[in-house]
Design goal:
- This protein has 19 helices and no strands.
- Helix 10 crosses helix 11.
- The longest helix has 39 residues.
- It is globular, with a radius of gyration of 23 Å.
Length: 422
């Protein structure tokens, strides 16, 4: 049964009313035909409606339990009670990570009366806005041209994003923030250096507060991509790698939640955390064997290939496997079809470079994810990079075909004019 308040209904109504405005704002220009805007508008409204059944009927149908969501809400109710007594219920004046999210829930409930349902709707709405931002960012990687609506719609409504972001968990705000960060890599032809937009700064702050280690990964990846796009020398590239190593270590130490100064101690701590979270009795537990997970290799495999098709224990892992293998095979196929010249051009794009660098960091983190369920949820933070690596090659191929067709038509027109004069 859904527990809701009048504030939840008002939040849903406001989110639904803003969907047309968001679609018209983000999907402007000739790159997005009217059909894209129409189906995205319809999908956005359905997404708001879906938020009312996401953690109830859908979870029950898939046999999932609202563990983290229920814990967040229980803590938020306790914090709200403290606020009503005039007390600040959190450890510090500036909470981080899980406590920051609970603070958001408590303040939302305290000032508006909204319940967990209202937070779920807002989180799904933020993820929808993130998808729109990502579609616009991808479209600006090329001169405006028209292509099939399917690709743009798939970017906005990626299945795992809808599923994991439309919950009372951190994924919705985090995916929105990551998409704002990636939008700093938009390529506008003929424009000078653009200053950061308020949404990009806010998005970076949201990710930094809710998931500091993920924010560090994306900041390093985006900064490295921006630096490499300036045709730096090999010496500068080596210096960049040297600087990135300690930054990556700090991010990993934050993930391990310890203040150790020895990298091996951090890795040991992450291994202990993975063992503590894993439970062989769970059907989704990842069996790495007696030797345990392999640094980077296990994470890379998990990022692009898990769940394996021969190890499906439930309907939800089967759905996850279909999505994972579809997007991975699409990525392999798209890059394989590119010639060496187009492949070089694509690899020079800052957004592609940022996605590749991010995949290296996520491969390290995912080496210590102990079960398939947690892996599927955490992978959402990598979805923008995954979409860039798989969809941008396809969009680039469509752009090449469109440009070749324009050139043929132009040459044919010139020939007709010259033959008419003769």
């Amino acid at each position: 049964m859904i527990e809701a308040s009048p504030a939840d209904l008002l939040i849903s109504l406001m989110c639904a009313l803003t969907v047309p405005l968001l679609v018209s704002h983000y999907l402007r220009g000739p790159a997005f035909p009217e059909s894209v805007r129409f189906y995205t508008l319809l999908g956005g409204l359905l997404w708001v409606a879906y938020s009312w059944i996401a953690e109830h009927q859908i979870y029950e149908m898939l046999g999932l339990w609202r563990a983290d969501s229920a814990i967040h809400w229980r803590l938020a109710l306790r914090a709200t009670a403290q606020l009503e007594m005039g007390k600040w219920p959190f450890h510090g004046a500036f909470p981080l990570s899980n406590e920051a999210y609970v603070t958001y829930l408590a303040l939302l409930h305290y000032y508006t009366g909204a319940t967990s349902q209202g937070a779920t709707t807002i989180n799904g709405w933020l993820a929808f806005m993130g998808g729109l931002t990502l579609a616009r960012t991808f479209s600006r990687c090329f001169p405006p041209f028209k292509m099939s609506s399917t690709w743009w719609i798939a970017i906005v409504f990626f299945p795992s994003t809808i599923f994991w972001a439309t919950t009372n968990m951190k994924e919705g705000p985090v995916i929105w923030g990551i998409c704002q960060m990636i939008s700093t890599l938009e390529e506008r032809s003929g424009s000078s250096r653009a200053s950061l937009k308020p949404t990009q700064i806010l998005g970076t702050g949201v990710v930094g507060i809710l998931r500091p280690h993920i924010c560090a990964v994306w900041i390093i990846s985006i900064a490295a991509a921006m630096l490499l796009s300036r045709r730096v020398t090999k010496v500068a590239f080596v210096l960049l790698l040297v600087i990135s190593i300690p930054l990556a270590y700090v991010a990993t130490r934050q993930l391990a939640q310890i203040s150790a100064t020895n990298p091996s101690t951090v890795i040991d701590r992450m291994e202990d955390q993975a063992k503590g979270l894993s439970d062989p009795r769970q059907g989704s537990n990842i069996e790495y064997g007696s030797g345990g997970s392999i640094f980077f290799v296990s994470g890379f495999t998990a990022l692009f290939f898990r769940p394996f098709p021969w190890a499906l224990g439930s309907a939800r892992t089967a759905i996850c496997a279909v999505e994972t293998w579809t997007i991975t095979l699409l990525m392999i196929w798209a890059w394989w079809r590119l010639g060496s010249g187009p492949r070089r051009v694509l690899l020079q794009m800052p957004i592609i470079r940022a996605a590749i660098i991010a995949s290296l960091f996520f491969s390290v983190f995912f080496s210590y994810v102990p079960n398939e369920g947690l892996l599927a949820r955490q992978r959402v933070q990598f979805v923008p990079a995954l979409l860039a690596l798989s969809f941008l090659p396809v969009i680039f191929q469509r752009f090449q075909l469109w440009r070749a067709n324009i050139l043929r038509n132009y040459q044919a027109g010139v020939l007709r004019k010259s033959s008419g004069r003769s």
